[in-house]
Design a protein that fits this description.
Blueprint lengths: L11 E2 L2 H4 L4 H16 L1 H24 L6 E4 L2 H11 L7 E5 L4 H14 L2 E5 L8 H9 L6 E7 L11 H10 L3 E6 L10 H4 L3 E5 L11 E5 L1 H4 L20 H7 L12 H10 L2 H23 L15 E5 L5 H10 L3 E2 L2 E4 L2 E7 L6 H17 L6
The structure holds pyridoxal-5'-phosphate (PLP).
Keywords: Aminotransferase, Pyridoxal phosphate, Transferase
Protein name: Aminotransferase class V-fold PLP-dependent enzyme
Pfam family, one: Aminotran_5
Length: about 375
């Protein structure tokens, strides 16, 4: 499969999780849109983009099971969360409950917002190693208080690469009358996603990670009850529109000044590609690589898995704890000497090497990492076992 991607063949690419990777047919589709835009900018932007957008949204809506009129494209999840944050009428003392496994950009977004409003961002400690889903849920709710107004949760975490029980947490949150916001950046095209089933009030996901879209393609789903309260992050022609569409919500969110929406238009090409390669079977094989290799890497590094090795907690990524006081040097060595692109991440003072397996990753790639780490252990002081 690797030849279908634009990735440098000289690099062993084990970091799909950070920014994805785009196969040639999808990238060709992206450039086709860009060429059409530059051939006739006025026709494209003013006359054609609404119908192109509609078509693309239909493809994504089918894929994630929601109505096309209930979401809009955003360049990335940070944009989506900033849009929500700006519209929440939180008061001093109100609390946003999250886990302590959230993505750094999101923690920063909430910290910024809380500093401005006097609200409080509460990061509930999720104890590692995870022993059960029940424990994850219980740990999360330890952060709850009568001041909690909103819950925010990543469905698959970044540094720890864990699948969180988003559905169960959203269900409980609804019983408590809370607003639910799920960061599903890693979810679409990775594990099954059914927005009607999760029932979050807000859900953001990317196409440019596991759905293989070019960069800058993400979305924000908003439950109908919240669509009217959502201000645009960028105020433009859609506000007080002279030509209102069917939905004020979409007028506000989809008209954001002159911009290139080509990445948004690749959703049908992404879905087509995923279907053509039988992505559910390929994803299962990629998960299998994770399940078969996680313990082996922990044994090599003298550490322990951070969760039970099962599909309940692991998708196409796993984070191996590593004892190092020089994470940046370790990362640089793996790339510089061994030509392996892999992140070495710090979360709450713990360091992890995170392996991602998409369809282009083979056991041979993972073995190359294994041998590289073995050599690093025996020839340097970067890892202590
Ligand atoms: C949990 C999570 N949220 C969000 C993001 C990405 O956010 P952005 O592209 O807006 O920086 C990532 C990226 O790895 C992530 O892991």
């Amino acid at each position: 499969m690797k030849t279908q991607f634009l990735l440098d063949p000289n690099i062993i690419y084990l970091n799909h999780g950070s920014f994805g990777a785009c196969p040639k047919p999808i990238f060709d589709d992206y450039q086709k849109w860009q060429r059409e835009l530059e051939a006739e900018p006025v026709q494209f932007i003013i006359y054609n983009s609404p119908k192109y957008l509609k078509e693309s949204k239909r493809a994504l809506a089918n894929f994630v099971n929601c109505a096309p009129e209930d979401f809009f494209f955003t360049p990335n999840p940070t944009f989506a969360i900033n849009t929500i944050m700006r519209s929440l009428d939180l008061q001093p003392g109100d609390e946003i409950l999250a886990s302590d496994n959230e993505y750094g950009a999101m923690d920063r977004t909430w910290n910024f917002f809380c500093k401005k409003t006097g609200a409080k961002y509460v990061r509930a400690e999720v104890n590692l190693p995870i022993v059960s889903k029940k424990q994850m849920i219980a740990d999360f709710w330890k952060g709850y208080s009568e001041k909690t107004k909103v819950i925010f949760l990543n469905q698959i975490s970044s540094a720890t690469a864990l699948i969180f029980p988003a559905k169960e947490i959203c269900e409980r949150a609804k019983e408590l009358g809370l607003i639910t916001i799920v960061d599903g950046a890693h979810v679409p095209g990775h594990i099954d996603l059914d927005l009607q089933d999760i029932k979050a009030d807000f859900y953001t996901g990317t196409l440019h990670k596991w759905m293989l879209a070019p960069k800058g393609s993400s979305f924000l789903y908003v439950k109908k009850d919240f669509q009217d309260m959502l201000d645009p992050l960028i105020v433009s022609w859609g506000y007080e529109s002279v030509a209102p569409g069917e939905s004020r919500f979409l007028d506000y969110q989809e008209q954001q000044g002159t911009r290139d929406i080509s990445a948004f238009l690749t959703a049908p090409a992404c879905v087509r590609f995923l279907e053509e390669i039988d992505w559910k079977t390929r994803a299962k094989e990629a998960r299998q690589l994770i399940l078969e290799n996680y313990q082996r890497f922990c044994d090599l590094l003298g550490t322990n898995p951070i969760c039970p090795i099962s599909e309940e907690f692991l998708g196409q990524m796993c984070s191996i704890p590593v004892n190092t006081s020089k994470p940046a040097e370790l990362k640089d060595m793996l790339y510089g000497k061994y030509r392996i692109e892999i992140p070495v991440m710090n979360l709450n003072g713990n360091i992890y090497i995170r392996i991602s397996t998409h369809v282009y990753v083979s056991q041979a790639d993972i073995d190359a990492l294994y041998l590289a780490l073995k050599e690093v252990i025996s020839t340097t002081d970067l890892i202590f076992v």
